[in-house]
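FORM 7B: Structural annotation worksheet

SECTION A. Query
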Amino acid sequence: MRSVAARRAVLAVAAATCTLVVTACGAGQEGGAKAEAKGSASPAPVKALTAAQLEKRVLVQGDVQGQKITEPGEKEIFAPGSVSVGKAACDPVGQVLSSLPAAEPAASVQRLAVHESAKAKKGMPSMDELANMTEKEAKEATLDSLDVTKTTASLWSYEGDGAQRALDALRAAGKKCAAGFSMTADGEKQQVTRVASEKLAVGDDAVAWTVGTKQDGTPADTKVAVVRVGGTLAGFSSFNIAAVTRGESYEQPADVIEKQTAKLG
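SECTION B. Predicted structure
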């Protein structure tokens, strides 16, 4: 889910919850499976996969149980050039946080993976149901209906050792910018408050973070991961509105990451 849109949604959730209640109630570390042994040694030169070849390797509906896989709509992704950061050294992090490549790829494809919790599948409570709830119950029921994790999965192919160089630059940027930086996406300003490393042992090499942000005073965490398989990078940016609104932690979409990595192998 687009970072700006997701944070707008968090604010909207808070407002909508209050409105419903009034109406109804009357009131880390990082590294790939081989990274520890190999470090960031450049792989043998490879030829970049074409867009058509990436399409054959990207996730499709049915690949991951419990995940709805679709092509993202225009309003669900950022356009190249629409994201900028206050510190040049942090640009790679700002780009992948927004599901854009850290370095220009030869070809790319994207998919959107959506996982709904059992409570979310029940949908939004009706006005009659809300009328019989306390304010706290109404808020929780509303958030339960929004317990959906959206993951933008991207494939970026590179010539030669371009994928490893891009990943190395991304890893370095994450360390330099761990304390945060400012960024603008589609004209909307926000502050990255932290870039916290996580362990991720998949592919030939990988980086993973929890990226904390704040926009209009609203804090949020986004799960970010980038995995290298040969000359291709698979990027993942995940967001859960309900968890963020509640201030709860949530996990990297391991099933999505593992399946996409396997399809590249």
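SECTION C. Observations
Confidence is low (pLDDT under 50) at residues 7-30, 32-39. DSSP finds ten helices and nine strands in the chain.

SECTION D. Sign-off
Analyst initials: ____
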